[in-house]
Amino acid sequence: MLVRLTLLGVFVLLAAETVVAQSTSLTHEFELDNGLKLIVQEDHRAPVAVVQVWYAVGSSYEHDGITGVSHVLEHMMFKRTKNLDNGEFSAIVSANGGRENAFTGSDYTAYFQEWAAENVTLSFELEADRMTNLVVEDDELAREMKVVMEERRLRTDDNPAALALEAARAVAYQTSPYRQPIIGWEADLVNLEASDVRRWYDRWYGPNNAVVVVVGDVDPQDTYLAAKTHFGKLAAREIPPPKSRPEVAQRGKKTIEVVSSTAKVPYLFMGFKAPTLATPSPAAPEWEVYALDVLAALLDGNSSARLPTNLVRGQELATEVGAGYNGADRLETLFYMTATPRGETDMATLEAALLEQITDLQSELVDDQELKRVKTQVVAESVFELDSMFFQGMVIGFLETAGLDWRLKDEYVQRIEAVSAEQVRAVAKKYLIRNGLTVTHLLPEEQS
To answer: How high is the pLDDT of residue 24?
Structure first.
């Protein structure tokens, strides 16, 4: 499963947890001698638990020639180990009433089980086994690659919006590994060998590159002792950090056109280079990330935000609009806007209308009432996410695999509340600029 967060994706969850759960949930951190980190978050509303194992490796760690290997390895982790036959892992989870899956992103690969809290120890036993005993067989990989190739066809090649995003990222980023698709380029997938997958597993899947997150009706100390029993015996691996591949400075607007035989309507994507919490510098202080978050919500927080109000209902230029930003990415990211034109609206007109919304934010301060409404919305709309133990765990995992401290989740509301109208205007003027912009026009084949 591929995962890519969008607008407020991580931070919306953080707000919910901070506002509602702080008095009822406690988070505890432990570290085993072999470097494995265990984070336990108590939630005693029901006798269930979620166990997530996060590895700090994803598509942004890959190099040309083996793109997609992290996602392929995710698939193979459900196959054979030295102790379990092919499919036996999943059969055990199912037989115990559990649900399991996995997902790969640019910066992480994660595996999870959701079931009765009494099965947390069984999760540890199963996950510790495949953390060190995976068997990647040539014939099994060949069969699974057909599944991966079909997944690529369905989710990217035959999905116009996904195809446009893949092309946009490949052009927007010149040197950053974020230019690589999570699922991998087709040519690399065709040539991927079992030896490539084994080497990737041997390099990255050690306890000292893993974070185990448990959320649910559990006792933290008992959970720690169970983790020591099953994970503590695993040897740490030598895991050299990936070589830095920072994005070079962009020197002008980039524009690309993507033609799709499956697209029914045009689609516009505009992405601006933007910093994240994991890429702070004197030139990009942390407050800018929170101001960009508020800026995204001003544009597309809900139906009363500026883009739907002005472009969908007001000028009636678009049928759908969007904006997004993820300040929890590991590397420099994109602040983006999207739109689908209405009727005879041409792409140039739609692009100009989106840029006009940015110009307004760069030239005029947001009034106090609108800013207060957006800040309230960022917190209020996230409260319902608290019901999901799974997403509580994801917050922690996303932050940790980006090289950030999970404790940032407890600061989010205060940092959002501190954002001023002047700061929103400042980041709009600094980052939503031509020299950081990549524009992608997706066109149906008959309109090209």
So the answer is: 40
Q: Which string of b and e fits 111-136 if b means at least 16 CB within 10 Å? A: bbbbbbbebbbbbbbbbbbbbbebeb
Sequence-ordered list of residues with C-beta below 8 angstroms from that of 94, at least 6 positions apart, any chain: none
- Helix or strand holding residue 269 (H, E): strand 267-274
Gap between the Cα atoms of 306 and 314, Å rounded: 10
Q: What single-letter DSSP state applies at residue 357?
A: H
Check pLDDT > 70 for residue 122: yes
* 34, 231 Cβ separation under 8 angstroms: yes
Q: Are 14 and 27 in contact (CB under 8 A)?
A: no
DSSP, res 75? H
User: Quick one: CA dihedral 276, 278, 283, 288, positive or negative?
Assistant: positive
Q: What is each CA distance from 114 to 28, 46, 90, 274, in whole angstroms?
A: 20, 12, 12, 35
Nearest to 205 by CA among 230, 229, 239, 242: 239
Interaxial angle between packed helices 194-204 and 138-152, expressed in degrees from 0 to 180 and rounded to the nearest 10? 90
384 pLDDT tier (thresholds 50, 70, 90): low
CA distance 446 to 360: 35
Q: Identity (one letter) of the amino acid at 91?
A: A
Query: How far out from the chain centre does Cα 43 lie?
Result: 24
74 is catalytic: yes
* Residue (of 227, 357, 352, 223) closest to 298 by Cα position: 357
DSSP-derived 3-state class of residue 105:
coil
Give residue-wise pLDDT tens across range 241-272.
988 999 999 999 999 999 999 999 999 999 99
Q: How many residues does the chain have?
A: 448
How many C-beta atoms lie closer than 10 Å to residue 287's C-beta?
15
Tell me which residue of 155, 164, 197, 161 sits closest to 67, measured CA to CA: 197
Identity of residue 244 = S
- The answer for residues whose C-beta is within 8 angstroms of residue 217's C-beta and 6 or more apart is 42, 43, 44, 45, 46, 47, 48, 49, 117
Structure tokens at 202: 């041997």
Given a cut of 80, whether residue 385 has pLDDT beyond it is: no
CA distance 80 to 218: 30
pLDDT in tens, 178-218: 999 999 999 999 999 999 999 999 999 999 999 999 999 99
Residue 6 has pLDDT above 60, yes or no: no
What's the pTM?
A: 0.93
Q: How far apart are CA 103 and CA 250, in angstroms?
A: 31
The rounded distance, in Å, linking the Cα atoms of 287 and 427 is 10
Catalytic residue among 17, 42, 62, 74: 74
